[in-house]
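Fold this sequence, please.
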Amino acid sequence: MKGDFSRWTFDPGKHYHGVLKQQGRVDLDADWNEQGAIVEHRVETETVDVVGQSGAPLGNAGFVISAAGGKTLAISAGRAYVDGILCENETAALAFTAQPDFPGFALPTVPGIYVAYLKVWLRHVTALDDPHIREDALGGPDTCTRSRTVWQVGLLQPKVTGNISCATSLPEWDALIAASTGMLAAQSVPDPKSTDPCVIPAKAGYRSLENQLYRVEVHDAGPAGQATFKWSRENGSVVTAWTGQSGNDLTVASTGRDAVLGFAAGQWIELTDDSHDLNFQPGTLAQITNVQNNTITIDPQTATGPTAIAGFKLNPRIRRWDSAGRIPIKSGSFLNLEDGVQVKFSDGTYSAGDYWMIPARTLKADVEWPLDAGGAPLPQLPKGIQRHFAKLAVLAFNGSAWTVTASCLPTFPPLTALAPTAAAEAGIHVTAVRFLQHNLNFLNDSDVPLALLNEGIGVFCDAPVAPHSIKRPTCFVTVDLPLFPAATTATGGATLVLANPPASTAPATGAGLTINQPTAAAVALSPIVGFQPLILLATTSLSTDNLTIRWNVGSPSVLAYLQEILVKLQAQNQDPRLLAHLTLKGNFIWGPNDRLAQMYLDGEAFGIPRLDNPDDANSIRTSLNLPRSGNGQRGGDFEMWFWLVLPVTLVSLSFAPNQVNTGGTSVGTLTLSAPAPSGGAVVTLAANTPSLATIPPSVTIAGGQVSGTFPVSGISTTSAVSQLQVTATYLQSSVAGSLTILGPPPK
């Protein structure tokens, strides 16, 4: 907040409920601003308590990410809350590249998995930024300034293999949202050497005759020792519009009100604009050599960056600083600013724009700063700029098309839509479902190659589960086996046959249903009339921390049996898929040592639409609105469905070019027998002679794609000719490819 303020007095730790005016007293800006900050703190804290860290209202959920035709990304209109701050987007299907407060944003071109996120912060706006703030009836002077909510939707590409969910822990996300750790302490000290009669006596600390609000602001980001700072005795509020340029002469709207609040030779200024501010980029610092009329002349030799106005296209302006350019941030000892005011930085990280405000008062000849019990100044974290983050979606980009694989922003209904007695009860909630071996995200309503069941299914919970409650009756997978009508019996009764039961199973009868080994003709000529659920033989267990419920196939014969059925369906031109269901019985899954609290699985998972093929608007499937299941009432079952299909296998591995010289590069291409499942296909790679070239340990073929590529670099051999053999493995299939490497020519 670079305004002409006296000081900033709001402190949430004092628990003030309001500011009360008294008659006949001086009206101060700090009192007015503190009242606004108290209300703001109350509203945002209350919103977090009701909504949570982030969320969007069901009736007008904004910031929902969509892949418009797969070629670009769009942001839905509506509202959302992040850390209690209201964010509003009034533009329907707003393109990522058209965000009003994110100049210069471009979609990435590198394929991979991305996390879309919402970044929110408050920007100080003056009449220089928004002329409508100024009341023209007063003849032009500015009055109050504004605090504006800025939101930006960005993309983060984590360095992970395989798919991720909204709940996946990512080091890159932790680094993105991490706040600065560097701190500052301020004090004032006397100057016993001064004999200037215009300076407050030496026994005082702060020695100026003017009350000031010092601003210390980080210029260049980085750790202590690399970062730099600048400071202003006027809180950085001396600023003017930059309207033109002729060489080193900068034309401005005004050179200031007077000698104190204006520009003069020898001072340092910062050339900046909205683009720099909105992207948290420092401007260019330069020293003034002359000020005449509305022209400021700078010394280009002192500039820390570009000085041409063409590089500052969005509302260019010039701000005065009272430091001698940028100053290195060094920890460990106090640094002199002026008139006895000193600051000391700590070790830590600093971000561009971090700032502290230090009120200096002549009446007590001191600065206002928190002190410890011994009277020493306490180090403080930056007052701002505070950035707030929320995950919006997980996206996949294959180099040409985008796909939304998961929506992360929770939604909430209005209070009037809740049942009067629907108080939320403590429960165990499902946060994610994954295949265990490769940690692949397991999507609802997705095609699952049969062999993928061998990896086992993991259901991740947000609270421990009692081991005794996980067993066959409470955790199971069922498969809907198709039923076909067979020839009418002699008595005229209906006879149904399963698609393909084991040949060794004797016919079974009951309730008018006969299960027999069908003939190919019976299957080929008869349509499916229904389905018979079959619970698969399996083992169940818990992870060592009791947070992950694990389901594993109980016998290889289970998959062999299901594969026979899938082959038969495919051979008879039937739908070559089997519908399967994963079920957890919430009434019988509880927490350990929980008889008094009676915390059970709150497992209801609610469906949301998912577009699997960006090029086909009709390829809508149903995802689960995770990372948190439940409706606030204990004992709800968790259910999801998926489609078992014949295993996707590797077909080929080729290289282009397939013959390269030492020092060259090549690209490997993997081809599958069918499109990769929705969660993607993670293919492992191994070379017979790793010293010949560098290849990645694995490559992920995106869901819905039949091929994927990987780079081959670091190619080198000392022989005349060498063969690099690469073996690719996916589930139970593998293929090999060969790359010919030519050595250096003989000398």
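The helical segments are 29-51, 171-177, 274-278, 520-525, 556-571. The chain has four domains: 52-179+387-393, 181-367, 424-645, 650-742.
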